[in-house]
Automatic annotation (TrEMBL):
Keyword GTP-binding applies: yes
PANTHER family on file: ADP RIBOSYLATION FACTOR-RELATED
Entries under Pfam families matching the protein: Arf
SMART domains from the UniProt entry: ARF, SAR
Name the record gives this protein: GTP-binding protein SAR1a
InterPro entries in UniProt: P-loop_NTPase, Small_GTPase_ARF, Small_GTPase_ARF/SAR
Entry coiled-coil feature ranges: none
Classification via PROSITE patterns: ARF (PS51417)
Keyword Zinc: no
Species the sequence originates in: Paraconiothyrium brasiliense
Keywords: GTP-binding, Nucleotide-binding
Residue spans crossing the bilayer: none
Top-rank taxon, per record: Eukaryota
Amino acid sequence: MHPSADSTGPKKTQQTYTQNLSDLFKPIRNLIPFGAPSSTPSSRLFARVPASTVILVIGLDGAGKTTLLRDYLSPRPDSVKTITPTINTGISLEDLQVGPAFFQAYDLGGCRPPYYHRFDEDLFRQADAVIYMVDAADRDRVMEAREELIMSGLRANNGGMRQGVPLLVLATKIDLENGRRPDQIETFFIDNISTSIGDRPRNVVGVNLKTGEGVSHALSWLSDGLSPRKDTLYNEKTASTEK
Ligand SMILES: Nc1nc2c(ncn2[C@@H]2O[C@H](COP(=O)(O)OP(=O)(O)OP(=O)(O)O)[C@@H](O)[C@H]2O)c(=O)[nH]1
Ligand SMILES: [Mg+2]
């Protein structure tokens, strides 16, 4: 809870929160000097995306966000910075620069006051791409994960993903016995909510973050679509995956 909430009540909290929201990311930019870190497979993959591209990595707790950042995108685990916003939202972001791109990960969902969704919306709105991570083996929470995506990411009135921003759904833990298959996740996350998703590039890829299965395929799709000289690729791939 925001520290001022106890003394000022909910209305003031909302105002304070809104007022500070735009300042939230300034410290992140200041903390991480822009420059080319050592060359890695991931930095080469994202080398051609526009400078300061923001890729939001989001999903419920335990979906695999930290594993993706630390084990697959980062040159070293300690390259991932944990950022606690200047206001006390109870949420921390993990931030990682990969070539010209910034990956920002945080846990979406849980038991939170409603104004937290404004935080979600703001993050979604500034994103140039969204990686939405879903634990395919957590059958009980797949519905919750979808509701969170719709509520903050897609249907927000003044926030949410901008038009045309690509959505990559990563279905993790496909190695586990009780995992839903990627095509089931696709039906649930894409086909059944196609009106909310709208006309944007989208893809669903099943991954095993223990072995890396599926990861480079998924990240290549994203980097290809964000790289200016291949801007037609999404249209081709999207067309071929639509049913
Ligand atoms: N078997 C299996 N385990 C996975 C996979 N992906 C992630 N895990 C495990 O799931 C657990 C949670 O992964 P994290 O990367 O910490 O998840 P997170 O989304 O960062 O979770 P929070 O920080 O709590 O929001 C870890 O023990 C991972 O090793 C996968 O594809 N297969
Ligand atoms: Mg984590």
